[in-house]
Amino acid sequence: MEEALLLNQSLVTHFHRKDLSVNQKVLMSVFAIFLIFYVLTLIRNIIIVITIIYDCQLHTPMYFFLSNLSFIDICHSTVTVPKMPVDTWSEEKLISFDACVTQMFFLRFFACTEIFLLTVMAYDRYVAICKPLQYMTVMNWKVCVLLDVALWSGGTIHSVALTSLTIKLPYCGPDEIDNFFCDVQCKVNKLACTDTHNTEILIVSNSGLISMVCSVVLVVSYTVILVSLRQQISEGRRKALSTCTAHLTVVTLFLGHCIFICSHPSTSLPEDKVVSVFFTAVIPLLNPIIYTLMNEDMKNALNKLIGKKEGKGEK
């Protein structure tokens, strides 16, 4: 009965979001930067997916998962970044309750799926480097597809579970979100007109547990890989180190954001907005750059693809 009364108090139909700055010139600069970042993110990640599909030599488990990462980066960036430039021209910065919940759902979904994917990619590198003769047996296409289905399903379950906790809360004011999108840091939950302490603990514990378990798996995997690389010949070691360095850089950037969020679940810091921008706009742009700059196979495939297109153009 009490829950029904609380639900009837959910009078908030829209939320107001804050800008990065009140200075109009700064907002115009932000608009241009977000637009450029988003376009570059789309172009670079789409190029990676096309290159992997086009080049038969990249039809391996590693690049299958890398194409998944590029697709996630496109989607993750699309959930928030296109709305940011639009809001710079709007005075009210409104977002409907349903749109806010949808944004939170997909942010959690793609973030969780990505951390699962990075963990699977670490396992793939472990098998490839530490058990090279068994690689195609262990990481056959059936296993790859099953792992792919598992990580996307895991992201879905995580997002549905946490978003349902947010939907059940009553919202009757205030209606201002202390960020420029509906993020995963429980800031929307704080607007509920009821005690959200237990809900926030569940959300942070769930996300923190996933981050911790995946971090342990990643650390163990790369520790074993680095020990194994000491015994390999120089050329094979150099190529493996290049691939692992790219992966470790992406993992560090992503988990660094997760650790920052979990370190202060109940408070808002001025740095939160900067970290949010980095997570939603910069990381999806950096990932394809990191993988192409540090991966010889990707660079060769890109040069081959560009060379053939130029050759066709000349004809």
UniProtKB/TrEMBL annotation:
It holds the Pfam family 7tm_4. Gene3D superfamilies: Rhodopsin 7-helix transmembrane proteins. It is a multi-pass membrane protein. It comes from Trichechus manatus latirostris (Florida manatee). The chain crosses the membrane at residues 26-54, 105-123, 143-161, 209-229, 241-262, 274-294. Belongs to the G-protein coupled receptor 1 family. Signal peptide: none annotated. GO terms for cellular component: plasma membrane. One of its GO terms (molecular function) is G protein-coupled receptor activity. SUPFAM superfamilies: Family A G protein-coupled receptor-like. InterPro entries: GPCR_Rhodpsn (IPR000276), GPCR_Rhodpsn_7TM (IPR017452), Olfact_rcpt (IPR000725), Olfactory_Receptors (IPR050427). It is found in: Cell membrane; Membrane. This is Olfactory receptor. Its main location: membrane. Keywords: Cell membrane, G-protein coupled receptor, Membrane, Olfaction, Receptor, Sensory transduction, Transducer, Transmembrane, Transmembrane helix. Residues 44-291 form the G-protein coupled receptors family 1 profile domain. The keyword Phosphoprotein does not apply.
